[in-house]
């Protein structure tokens, strides 16, 4: 007899079943080992980045498998909102998708359509071949597939901020995720995520989402900004990335162990 399995709770389930902001981080290296290390950290969610990291379908699968052994919820960011890419990510078992650069309600509706089977969407049907259904070991996967998927769309341009209410109100969008870096760039403030105008746009979007009852998160590696956005009502926050942690920690080692010309000489290690 084949084993009958049950899909894991989605990110939207996690958001609905908590009384505190969920804290997560990015994994961008393409390494399943790094993903597993981060998944065992005690953080609530781990985001595998397919947009800016060197991740492909072949590297995302083992990362999902590694994270599955831990309580952390895995999310996967698509490189862009292209239906074929979204279909492939869903089929390899990415239950929790983040779609970047959603600027209009039409963009949001297109993302929703891409994650749903007909007649409600355009997702291609290949569940018997796919890890998403555990090769048809999930009972009635096709009928219940929509309940196994969580769709988060990114608000990361001035245009998206203007359209935030309509985007959040799109049926099938389960959460918003604000990207201050691209938002700052779209406002002519490249690299200035802490500029008052950018912060005001982020907090405006948080207010809009809260008014509509839609979960909203934000990317904020600066601890002070992360706390500010949590106090403003953010439901989830990304506070670090594996590559950034490694870069800063290795720099700290260099600062501590490699002395400059005028630095005091150490007698021993």
**Could you say what the CATH topology is called?**
TIM Barrel
CATH superfamily: Phosphoenolpyruvate-binding domains
Sheet with the most strands: spatial strand order: 1-2-3-4-5-6-7-8
Low-confidence stretches: none
Total DSSP E strands: 8
The global form is globular
How helical, in percent, are the residues? 40-55%
Secondary-structure element series: HEHEHEHEHHEHHEHHEHEH
User: Would you state the CATH class?
Assistant: Alpha Beta
What is the name of the CATH architecture? Alpha-Beta Barrel
Radius of gyration: 20 Å
Strand proportion, as a percent range, falls in: 5-15%
Number of helices, counting only DSSP H or I runs of 4 residues or more: 12
Whole-number count of domains? 1
Largest sheet: 8 strands, parallel, barrel
Query: Structural class, from secondary structure content?
Result: alpha/beta
Q: Report the span from N to C terminus.
A: 61 Å
Explain what this protein looks like in three dimensions.
It is a single chain. The chain has twelve helices and eight strands. It is of the alpha/beta class. The chain has an eight-stranded parallel barrel, surrounded by seven helices. Helix 3 links the parallel strand 2 (45-49) and strand 3. The chain is globular, with a radius of gyration of 20 Å. The termini are far apart. Residues 23-248 form the HpcH/HpaI aldolase/citrate lyase domain. This is 2,4-dihydroxyhept-2-enedioate aldolase.
Give the tags.
single chain, 269 residues, alpha/beta, TIM Barrel, eight-stranded parallel barrel, 12 helices, 15% strand, aldehyde-lyase activity, lyase, Aldolase/citrate-lyase_domain, Pyrv/PenolPyrv_kinase-like_dom
